[in-house]
Amino acid sequence: MNRELSAWWLAGAATVAFAALLCALLIVILLPLLKRYALARLNARSSHKTPTPQGGGIAVVAATIAATYGALYFSAAAAPAPGPLLIVFAATILIACVGAAEDIRSIEVVPRLLLQAAAIALVIYALPHELRVVPLLPWWVERVLLVVGGLWFVNLVNFMDGLDWMTVAEIVPITVALAVIGGLGILPIQGTAVTLSLCGAMLGFAYFNRPVATLFLGDVGSLPIGLLVGWLLLLLAARGHLAAAIVLPLYYLADATVTLLRRLARGEPVWQAHRTHFYQLATDRGFAVTEVVARVFVLNVVLATLAVLTIRLPTFDVAALITGAILVAGLLFAFARGKK
Questions:
Q1: What dihedral angle (degrees, nearest 10) is formed by the CA atoms of 192, 195, 201, 205?
Q2: What angle do CA 243, 244, 245 make, to 5 degrees?
Q3: Model-level pTM?
Q4: pLDDT (0 to 100) of residue 1
Q5: Spatial distance between the Cα atoms of 116 and 227, rounded to a whole number of angstroms
Q6: Short-list 161, 198, 184, 157, CA closest to 307
């Protein structure tokens, strides 16, 4: 058993390394084109003072897909039929194309949301018919709510991608935790392969996105990343680990949702660019970018640890949720107060 476990971790490390190197190589190849054709437009949401190329998500998505199929090809375990994964990746490419179009030229809100919803519906369609997250609800009601929830999750990941290294500080701890959970046999092999590949791709992107960033993900990256992570969390919740699926992205969920509710309460148009997320308030009120992302990263490591503990200790679910909520609330309060 120890030999099998060691082989699993070795294969996982190889997948992460391959995805990281492939992503970095693709970025080096694409960067001259992105500098010429994909400069991020400065708007009310921008944290940078000068135009910066975006589109790094193209490399992240491509490396994730390639590394996933490479891992499954060389895996000794018998992988399930590839049909559902093909659908998930087709939806990923679709929503990446929507993001690319938005990066190049803004799309109206309604068509953009409809296209995103179509991609999310494809992912939900790929789920096993018997998969349930809340069995008390009628099947069709649960599926509709999953599409609506997926639409919000994809967009909140996009909203939160507004600072150098922010998405790296969020996605790397989540994917590491999901890889550990996959190693425990909770996630299906295809989900674990996607987790490892996405983690590696984000590490390969991190070098170019370090403050002050020379490259952004763009919507072409943040939207498909949100879709893939949402799918992985859904698989985790459907395996009976809803608490872990909530705790892992809790900082993003809280920051984006509370900000949305505050803007709605003030009657502000929620679809317009703004700088009122808590992490943005922090940089406006004295925190350096590295101080913000370091705090977010440390918090996410703690949340990831809590999530893994709920897998090993099922009675820890409520305690993990309460502890995570207190820690997230504390960081949001600190960001809103600013640095003294």
A1: -160
A2: 90
A3: 0.93
A4: 46
A5: 9
A6: 184
